[in-house]
Amino acid sequence: QLPAGSLQLTLYQYKTCPFCSKVRAFLDYHGLPYEIVEVNPIMRKEIKFSSYRKVPILLANAGSPLQLNDSSVIISAIKTYLISRRNSLEEIVSFYPPVKTMTEQGKEVLEYENKYWLMLDEKETKRVYPVKEVRVEEMKWRKWADDWLVHLISPNVYRTPKEALASFDYIVREGKFGTLEGLFAKYVGAVAMFFVSKRLKKRHQLRDDVREDLYEAANEWVKAVGKNRLFMGGNQPNLADLAVYGVLRVMEGLEAFDDMMVHTNIQPWYQRMEEVIQK
Ligand SMILES: N[C@@H](CCC(=O)N[C@@H](CS)C(=O)NCC(=O)O)C(=O)O
């Protein structure tokens, strides 16, 4: 583990963004201190310094300043750095190069190679992943959190006009908005996202009742963890536990979250996650 104070971290985020929440869950669980810069989602002045236009962005200083983009790259790179001090953080980050790819919709996007892979040597791998299967499983479910679970959020939290308004009320309350801006964002945002969420529902082929997909996902996760361990990582969460928890957490306080707690088996695992992260 790191000697205290040797990694200076600044997280640029929207508080209610699932990718940012995932990074916070990871940093909090590992006891890494960091500063937060809440980004105003309308002007995004705070991240004008960056050519990468999304959040989260993590500025890391382990001797020299370095910008890390993409939640899964951030998590894999820092985790690698915590386990193995063979390479500088800069070298580790270079193992996750951005590549241009096409989405199914024909849109050009940046993806990061190897983003679920920790850059460990044989000895470190044995220590962290005593059997190969747990490494494969962790990667599979981290990817599932990014590629499936996150897509269930918008259709669920903007499902009805009332829910869309409640969601935006929460986003504005938690986020960084000017007074007028916030009022504007709340009503215009809620109406816009109500319609956008219908499009997202179609794009990701969710069922008509989007709750069904959310419940199924939650139960699928609980089933994957199984009855014989507290977390997917065993007695302690692994990166998949942290990812799933980080994503689901952004729905806290909203109807979709309460419904999920009532109608699925996820609560005991979720509470265990809350406990280990608060510690
Ligand atoms: N793959 C990225 C996705 C990040 C992302 O989509 N962030 C959203 C906020 S939830 C964003 O910044 N969107 C602004 C934009 O796309 O212009 C990650 O895992 O960090």
What CATH architecture label of the largest domain applies? Up-down Bundle
Termini distance?
A: 17 Å
CATH topology of the largest domain: Glutathione S-transferase Yfyf (Class Pi), Chain A, domain 2
Number of helices: 12
Amount of beta strand: 5-15%
Shape: globular
Give the total of beta strands: 6
Order of H and E elements: EHEEEHHEEHHHHHHHHH
> Into how many domains do the coordinates divide?
2
Trace the largest sheet across and list its strands. Answer: 2-1-3-4
CATH class of the largest domain: Mainly Alpha
Structural class: alpha+beta
The residue fraction in helices comes out at 40-55%
Bound molecules: glutathione
The overall pLDDT, averaged over residues, is: 96
Radius of gyration: 19 Å
Main sheet summary: 4 strands, mixed
Low-confidence stretches: none
InterPro entries: GLR_AS (IPR011767), Glutathione-S-Trfase_C-like (IPR010987), Glutathione-S-Trfase_C_sf (IPR036282), Glutathione_S-Trfase (IPR040079), Glutathione_S-Trfase_N (IPR004045), PGES2 (IPR034334), PGES2_C (IPR034335), Thioredoxin-like_sf (IPR036249)
Domain GST C-terminal: 170-279
Enzyme class: isomerase
Pathway: Lipid metabolism; prostaglandin biosynthesis
